[in-house]
What does this fold into?
Amino acid sequence: MSTLLDILSSIGMWEAVLRIATPLIFGTLGVLLCERVGVLNLGIEGIMTFGAMVGWLTVYSGGDLWTGMLAAAAAGALFGLLHALMTVPLGLSQHVTGLGITLFASSLSYYIFRLAVPTASSPPTVEPFRPIEIPGLSDIPFVGQVLFSQTPPTYLALALVVLLAWGLYRTPLGLALRMTGENPHAADAQGIDPILLRIGAIMGGSALMAMGGAFLTLAAFNSFFPTMVQGRGWICVALVVFASWKPARALLGALLFAFFDAFQLRLQTVVDGVPYQLFLMLPYLLSILALILMARRARVPQALMQPYRRGER
Amino acid sequence: MRFERRDHPSRGLTLAAPLVAILAALLGAGVLIAIAGANPLEAYRLILKGALGSRLGFSEMLTRATPLILTGLAAAVAFRARLWNIGGEGQFYMGALAVAAFGMIPAIAALPAPLAILFCLIAGAVAGMVLLLLPLGLRLKFGVDEVVTTLLLNFVAVLFVSLMIEGPMKDPLAFGWPQSVPVPDSALLPKLLERTRLHAGLVIAVVMAVTVWWIQSRTVFGMRARAAGLNPRAASFAGVPLGRTLIMVACLSGGMAGLAGAIEVMGVKGYVSTDLSPNYGYSGIIIAMLANLSALGVIAAALFSAVMFVGADSMSRALGIPSYIADVTVALSLLTMLVAIFLTQYRIRK
It folds into this structure.
């Protein structure tokens, strides 16, 4: 019991929660943006992998860390454009297109990675983002030490939650985006172009997903290796349902999830006799549990997965 | 520019679609090969030579195609009924693990070969079914979308396999490698060709493809599954029992993926490890789409993928192009196939 308290009262544990949550925050915001305009983006897993690779490769070949993040975002937006062109004007199956993008983007990442590093037993490393102490704030005991000793992308992710929440609910563009996801016909009647908005939102959302991937190689770890995303993308898709498509709740979901993940990592080291695989299963099982709890309660965007063609009902 | 639905997609166009899609994917991958500094045509020649040019290459290609036919069927059967089973990878591993577990029972190991093989195959198929029936149950009972749950269960399944082969099913003679106790000889599938890895699993896979084709086109269940996929509300109105039909579809789909895992263990590896599948489950989705969800088409699509995968290995050794190019090409062909199918159904008007 006292070890549990030790874990829960350690600063390291709570710092880790924010660190583990960061890629999930980027990812859930990305999924949320896509789904709010009515398009499921199962490309996330592959887009995160590609973002991780591009971010790493940019820094590895001499770019600075923010250039790496930006390059990842641009690459993510490109895959988003591909997904958008196939699912929006053509109205192809969002499930299959998304899975196709995931398979294509991840195999392309591995291909490019192998071209860049043909033979290396251990993946080459880069100098990752360092935690930035915010003068004054970081000195506040516990809360300050946890909240204000993170790497810059974590601050960016937190700021993006606020920005997206404000943008969606307090701006005309946000209203247009939400309307497109609820009823594109009504939006069209208001002079809003649902096709254009959907394409734009998917590109933006995919850029966020890729930045979540880049966080993995540029802050959480310092190198790229295949299968490093480990289902984080799918977990984000589940978290958005859990969050009922609201940015603030998405943040909460990501934090809650990261809390369990950080907790099980520490528990593994103190609990004997329980196979470590059971701990590793927890994140996936928790995501499924979250889906079960929220499945009937969540307010799904009404036009989710419905292609829009002008003049067709 | 706008799109206008064709009244009747012509048969010629529908048959040409996968060929055009594959050609487009090869073109795209060719650019990547050229960027890497090799001649794409030379690369493709080496891929074909590697997979078809020798007895060994050809038998390896067929060995590789065997699980792909079954995972392709798993996806095709499910997608036709709009059951989004993306969990083929997990079901494959559960099927494989079930065989190894069954083989540990002395009474099974002591059975004559045909019976031991039959029992193990059934065990594998049932294990795959169970892993798909769980998420289907969640969908029917709680309305949980099965796409994400089947995807997440893939990771759970592999971790479960890892747990078992490092725990109760660990092979004490494997020098500490995490792998399961080997399957007894009586449960191993006979070889089809001497001095190759090609085994009777290929026959099983092809028989399954024909059986699934028959079920889909000649039985009431097949028609109901199709109707449930095309328009669930109309199907329900016409008296199709949706829940029961989906459960049967899930049994067929999960069963095929589980069978793939079982056959891979019984025909090729002889034991279970966590690197048993180079994404067979996910490749099955691509194969099903390339086949336009037709059971017989799955055989052809699986052969194409197997040629790419096996050929790329030997091409990679000769030209130094990463063998991931095969994965890229096959994944790209899924995207081009989607567009090609669209073009068979719509015409473009100015």
